[in-house]
Write a structure and sequence with these properties.
single chain, 125 residues, alpha+beta, OB fold (Dihydrolipoamide Acetyltransferase, E2P), 5-stranded mixed β-barrel, 2 helices
Length: 125
Amino acid sequence: MRAAVLTGFLVMMLLSAAVPLSAHHRWPVDRTRLVTINGTVTDFVWSNPHPMITLQVQVEGGQTEKWLIGGPALNRMEANGWTRMTVRPGDVIMGTGYQFADGQKIIRLERVVLADGREIRAYGR
């Protein structure tokens, strides 16, 4: 009896740990269409779990919008040629990815065209 209770407890602990981990890796994006934005980098945070680039994007009427584009974990981005110096504040870049399904100005990055015209991918596809 004691072994069954202990086994049940361990199974519940493992399941409760697995659910948040799997949920974290699901970006709430609309995968039916890619979105491309052009803007000026205002910040690039090079840290796990997701490096984030902040862009100021010019929209109609001369207004600007703040967009965030995030990539995968650092080791995955590094495998595709990224470093903490790949983009810098002031760079004008074009980012392509999947926007959050709820309309937030956040993109799960697929690729970037850098100021020098080079294309660099986030996921290596």
